[in-house]
């Protein structure tokens, strides 16, 4: 499977009946799709705090995990969203020990994202996950349509002659 580098495009922290969502945007050749992942509101808030660099007076759960990993002499290298089944996404956080051993730990994408934004490591999704669950970027479709309309108008104007304005 090819890994696609992802960036967090937006985080919606829902309340009550409104679901929380994190939207990931691929870099590079796959920029025309978005990967929306439904998450809990607590996890959405935690990801937001990590993105903003907001420090609490006491460590929150994802800060605690980051501290435990570091105190054990390991580091987070990246995360991979490696599967989707229905509306459930699966991820792995990849760690590297002091001895250089790499370990992949099963995680919910929301928890993996909250940890990764705190450790400033890359986020990846397997290409199969994008093929299965990504939504098209409608702004790219809109830009393409506007470009087509502008070209048609340009061709119309270029084809005008003074005779077109006489009665």
Short structural summary:
The chain is of the alpha+beta class. Helices cover about 35% and strands about 35% of the residues.
State the order of secondary-structure elements, H for helix, E for strand: EEEHHEEEHEHEH
Low-confidence stretches: none
In percent, how helical is the residue content? 25-40%
- What is the strand content? 25-35%
Main structural class = alpha+beta
Q: Structurally, how many domains make up the residues?
A: 1
- CATH overall fold name: Bifunctional nuclease domain
- Corresponding CATH superfamily: Bifunctional nuclease domain
Radius of gyration: 22 Å
Q: Give the class-level CATH name.
A: Alpha Beta
User: How would you describe the shape?
Assistant: elongated
**Tally of helical runs:** 5
Mean pLDDT: 86
What summary fits the major beta sheet? 8 strands, mixed
Task: Enumerate the strands of the largest sheet in spatial order, edge to edge or round the barrel.
Answer: 6-5-4-7-1-2-3-8
CATH architecture assignment name: Roll
């Amino acid at each position: 499977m090819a890994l696609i580098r992802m960036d967090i495009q937006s985080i919606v922290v829902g309340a009550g009946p409104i679901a929380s969502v994190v939207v990931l945007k691929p870099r590079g050749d796959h920029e025309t799709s978005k990967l929306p992942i439904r998450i809990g509101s607590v996890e959405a808030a935690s990801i937001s705090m990590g993105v903003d660099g907001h420090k609490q007076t006491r460590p929150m759960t994802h800060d605690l995990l980051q501290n435990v990993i570091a105190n054990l002499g390991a580091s987070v290298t990246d995360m991979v969203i490696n599967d989707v089944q229905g509306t459930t996404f699966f991820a792995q956080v990849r760690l590297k020990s002091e001895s250089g051993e790499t370990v992949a730990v099963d995680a919910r994408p929301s928890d993996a994202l909250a940890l990764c934004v705190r450790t400033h490591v890359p986020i990846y999704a397997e290409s199969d996950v994008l093929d299965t669950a990504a939504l098209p970027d409608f702004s790219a479709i809109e830009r393409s349509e506007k470009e087509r309309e502008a070209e048609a108008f340009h061709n119309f104007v270029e084809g005008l002659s003074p005779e077109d304005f006489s009665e």
